[in-house]
Amino acid sequence: MKTWAWMLGGLTVWGVHFIGVYLISSVADVVATADDPAWRMAALAFSGLCALMAAGLVWASVRRLNRRGPGFPDQMAALGSGVSLIAIVWQALPTLIGH
SS3 for 82? Predict the structure, then answer.
């Protein structure tokens, strides 16, 4: 089970980010407007936290790959975390530029 959690860690962070940003924007739309600066900053802070977590997982998986040599779980963890980091940044861009 730990191997599966390791391999899917980055994708889990991406899923949590997707749900969290959606919830933040939904609550912001009910309370104020979705483009209110305070809510945008909250979404950016949450995105930054998730991006740091994904980057940490990329770093840890690449470090394990360098130390242990090629192994499928570590390769999948690196790939999933890298894709997650790119996706989190991509999803945060509209909040950052204001659209």
Answer: helix
Give tens-digit pLDDT for 7-65. 999 999 999 999 999 999 889 888 887 678 888 899 999 999 999 999 999 999 999 99
Q: Are 57 and 77 in contact (CB under 8 A)?
A: yes
Residue type, 13: V
Q: Which CA distances in Å does 87 have to 15, 21, 45, 71?
A: 10, 13, 16, 24
Question: Is 18 within 8 Å of 10 (Cβ atoms)?
Answer: no
Is the whole model's pTM more than 0.70, yes or no? yes
Tokens of 25: 């924007």
